[in-house]
Amino acid sequence: MSAHAPADTPIWRQPLPVWAIAFASVIAFMGIGLVDPILPAIAEQLEATPVETELLFTSYLAITGIMMLFTSWVSSRIGTKRTLLLGLALVVVFAFLCAISGSVDAVIGFRAGWGIGNALFASTALAAIVGAASGGSGAAIILYEAALGLGIAVGPLVGGLLGEISWRGPFFGVATLMAIAFIAITVLLRERGAKPAPIALSAPFRALRIPSLGRLAIAALFYNIAFFILLAYSPFPLGFGAMQIGWTFFGWGLALAVTSVVVAPILIRRWGRRRTLMTMFALLAADLIVAGIVVEHAPALVACIIVGGLVLGVCNTALTEAVMEATELPRQVASSAYSAVRFIGGAVAPPLAAWLGNAFSETVPYFFAGAAALVSLLVLAVSARHLAVIDRDPEPAELEEAEALTAGDAS
């Protein structure tokens, strides 16, 4: 069944290739939060400082962001399926190398290689799901966000469970699961005979010059600073063991998954994407400021983390939809350009938060994150004219053309 199937097709009735990509997406996004519960253990057992440990996020996210600028060029030449498989293969290799590493520097380096694989997979997965899903692009985006939310939710829990055995356990776990995903996509995702139209290497760079996409990318950069300070810095002031951190961020991720799939569509229908994002950025800033105030009280900080997950889920879905509607470019180009800027914001946040916490107090990183969320709100507030397009429903002909451009060779 194609992406052009009737819109009233139940969202969960999807062909097997869609579920194969969704499963792989869950595992890919597990990689974001997987190391969260084991950060203190890595710092202790590999004799690393908090700033050095946070570089596990930075190397992964920075390389992911940079590589995002080139993934649409790669996938348009070798095809969607081969790009997905190449990304999965690289994640398997570098996750395994992380698991057998003997120093924090080695793990940081291999996490960078992991980021290359993640960029190739993640930037292509949405387009592949759009090309293969039943029920149109709206259903595809919700499925993708569901996979993202589930992966982010399960990642810390798996990290905590396996981290109780050894800090190496989560890395072995991801390598195994990604190998299963590689086999599933190899078997279930078929290629069409026609090759996708080549995309210029400069396309993502030129895409960022489009005012609507450029403004969204800037807002997402500061939003990701807030996102990753909450995710990557919080394990240190919590003072929990690996399993307690895992359960905390499982709750955070579960909250994110529920609101991204259930609450976000309702708010977007009622308020529109821009107003929804501005409201959520304001709530996120408030939550982070409260987290900074109560940082010395673990139960209160846990509550702020869970509330943050509720808000972040709505933000993620609204931002993804906004980027998909912001331009008439192929979705893969728009997604690559936007994601590159977004991930770079995420790469800066963890070591910066650790430095601010050490240099000043554990309160300051959360206040800084709250300020970053307010910058995102301000960017949207002054961009009403440029972002009017994100609240416009595309005409059926435009939607069909966009989906045809991004389907690649998935079927």
Automatic annotation (TrEMBL):
Keywords: Membrane, Transmembrane, Transmembrane helix. One of its GO terms (cellular component) is plasma membrane. InterPro entries: MFS, MFS_dom, MFS_trans_sf, Tet-R_TetA/multi-R_MdtG-like, YfmO-like. GO terms for molecular function: transmembrane transporter activity. The keyword Protease does not apply. The keyword Membrane applies. This is MFS transporter. It comes from the Bacteria. Its main location: membrane. It holds the Pfam family MFS_1. Gene3D superfamilies: MFS general substrate transporter like domains. The lineage of its organism: Bacteria, Bacillati, Actinomycetota, Actinomycetes, Micrococcales. It is a multi-pass membrane protein. Coiled coil: none annotated. It is found in: Cell membrane. It comes from Microbacterium sediminis.
